[in-house]
Give the backbone structure.
Amino acid sequence: MKLLIAVSLMSGLLGMAPGHLPKNGDRMCVYQVISQGDALFCTGNLNVIYPEIGDIGCMYVPDCNNFRQKIGSWGKPSIKYSQANENKKYVLMMVDPDAPSRYHPQNRYWRHWLITDISGAGLKTGKISGHELTRSWAMNDFIKHFHLGHPVAATQFLTQN
């Protein structure tokens, strides 16, 4: 069975433009969207949803309300792809292209999350399950070995070390 690559989530420090959300107490929580050039990577209306923040696809995670720290403790986000075909299987990849830092990416494409055999129905509802792997790896070799082709949807969110 041929698997489709559903997601390539990239976190790293890239260009940004400011945006705003309503005030949180006395402090304004400023959401920053990524640059237009970086936004070209985001396709297919893929949603990456964390508690308190909501969908963080194609945005820079704000440095307020301890969101950047909370992402590490919340666990896995809810992933939804409304255009998923219920009769197909998908692969989800969440990688860091410049780990541990943008200037020293010796663990390039750190595999935060890889899930294979995700049902299209589960991807539509955000209730995904499958075989799960983590750690550093050769992402491009994996894609070639399993003949995954191009992503059907992709997004990225950015944080700062």
